[in-house]
Amino acid sequence: MSLALQPGLSATPSSTAGSAAPLRLTRRGRLVLVGLPVMLATAALIFLAAFFTAPAIAGSETQDPAAHTLQVSVETGESLWGLADRYVPDRDPRAVVADIMELNNLQEATIPAGAQLYVPVSR
Q1: What CATH number has the domain spanning 65-120?
Q2: Helical (H) or strand (E) element with 64
Q3: Which of 13, 57, 71, 80 has its CA 20 to 30 A from that of 96?
């Protein structure tokens, strides 16, 4: 295969065709060109606002757990259920037992005599 040059053609575009019309955006094109960056900037601002205010919001709602707890010494034969019934009689004992286990980082409900436990008290 060989290339043959034709004598009347040049590599530069012809000026007789006229200049191309300027680029015109449709309504949809303008919406994409303007709307997409605006939406991305808005999303970025919302994300940054949420990121920087989340620790402040979470930190402002903390309560002192010692203000609503009492440290008790477990006696022989006592159970978490009995402690819950004695110190918080107005609440469901199951919920109070769960609170006692959470306050004291207990994995099981059996406790030895003489153990010091934090127990929630009625408010």
Answers
A1: 3.10.350.10
A2: none
A3: 57
Identify the CA nearest to 81 among candidates 106, 66, 98.
Answer: 98
Strand partners, 118: 71
pLDDT score for 66: 56
Q: Which two tokens stand for residue 66?
A: 């010692």
- Name the burial class of residue 85, with classes exposed (0-12), middle (13-18) and buried (19+) by CB atoms within 10 angstroms of its CB: middle
* Domain residue extents for the chain: 26-62, 65-120
pLDDT digits (tens, 9 = 90+) for 51-60: 888 776 655 5
Q: Give which of 58, 63, 102 is closest to 80, Cα–Cα.
A: 102
